[in-house]
Write a structure and sequence with these properties.
About 60% of the residues lie in helices and about 10% in strands. With about 325 residues, it is mostly helical. A 3-stranded antiparallel beta sheet has the order 6-5-7. Helix 1 packs antiparallel against helix 7, helix 2 (about 95-110) packs antiparallel against helix 6 and helix 6 (about 160-200) runs antiparallel to helix 7.
Length: about 325
């Protein structure tokens, strides 16, 4: 009787960079620079628009110290000190409405460039989804001869399931940027209308507008990082699930925390532990865990006892988690 040798399970590939286990810093930085360029264009175009339309005359009277109140999404409202009653604008209600419409067009031209079918941000998200799929393919190929023999990268990238996931990411990304454009328009409209109504001069108004655009840009950068790293993670999760469904492999994901000072303690506490993709998705769906997160989850193949075959690797990761936690607590 011929005995079939058990299939050998290989060791997963763990990124060397402990601060950036998703290896996304370069890609995120590239999108950040694109965002900065777009907001600089917005500021320049708004300056031209305001020079043309925010006209009037200085008022010969003592100014009245006051504040413009602006809401922030995740932090207390900001108060901007101004000198009210110093300027009289030559603007009717209809002209104000037209001005605000032009502001919206400037924002949309920059933030919604390409429209819903070819939004500028989509190439960054799609690239990360593809990179995540490539990383998962490489990792699973190293761990499983069965996977390596029966799977090609081209097969994965051309599959209907992959294309559907990328399409879903497109819809989500466009929705995010549409929301940010609308949010920025509402914020700037509040400042412009308040300035005109209270007689705040154009120079002060432009200063506050510039500062509010900086707030919007900070939100946009956070959104960009979340979208890019989220797409990479999603691709890793999907291939982990598909490998189990297609080939019957005992797959899970190994959590690799970004071990840097800004990492939240409950994120770091997961470093070197095994989870199902459902458990990871549930974690990221609550308490804002998906924002500002650089943690990674890589696919692993477990043995019959539900463990990673290389227990030396798991011991090293456990030690890293303990040392990081101890060091962070001592610095508090």
């Amino acid at each position: 009787m011929t005995m079939t040798a058990p299939t050998r399970i290989g060791t997963p590939i763990v990124p060397r960079n402990k601060n950036d286990p998703t290896q996304s810093s370069t890609q995120v930085g590239r999108m950040y620079r694109d965002i900065e360029s777009r907001y600089l264009d917005i500021k320049r175009n708004l300056r031209i628009l305001f020079d043309q339309h925010l006209t009037g005359r200085e008022r010969a009277a003592n100014s009245e110290p006051g504040y413009i109140f602006c809401n922030n999404e995740d932090s207390p409202a900001t108060l901007y000190q101004v000198n009210a009653g110093t300027y009289i604008y030559d603007m009717t209600a209809a002209q104000l409405a037209d001005l605000l419409q032009r502001v919206q067009l400037i924002l949309d031209d920059a933030l919604l460039d390409g429209g819903s079918q070819n939004l500028w941000a989509l190439e960054y998200v799609a690239a990360e989804y593809e990179r995540g799929t490539q990383q998962a393919f490489t990792n699973l190929s190293v761990q499983s001869p069965i996977y390596e023999q029966q799977t090609t990268l081209q097969q994965l990238l051309s599959s209907t399931a992959y294309q559907n996931q990328v399409a879903a990411a497109y819809v989500s990304t466009y929705s995010d940027w549409l929301l940010e454009s609308d949010r920025a328009r509402g914020d700037l409209a509040n400042v412009i209308a308040d300035s005109i109504g209270r007689g705040i001069n154009p120079k002060e108004t432009a200063r506050i507008i510039s500062q509010r655009l900086d707030v919007s840009m900070a939100r946009a950068k956070n959104m960009a990082q979340t979208e890019q790293v989220g797409a990479l993670r999603k691709a890793q999760w999907q291939e982990t699930d598909w490998a189990r469904e297609r080939l019957g492999l005992n797959t899970a994901v190994l959590w690799l925390s970004a071990l840097k000072p800004t990492t939240r303690s409950w994120h770091a506490a997961r470093h070197g532990k095994i989870y199902t993709t459902e458990e990871v998705e549930a974690f990221y769906a609550e308490n804002g865990n998906r924002y500002y997160c650089y943690c990674s989850q890589i696919p692993v193949i477990l043995d019959n006892s539900g463990k990673v075959i290389n227990q030396g690797l798991m011991a090293d990761l456990t030690e890293e988690r303990i040392i990081f936690s101890s060091t962070k607590n001592n610095n508090l």
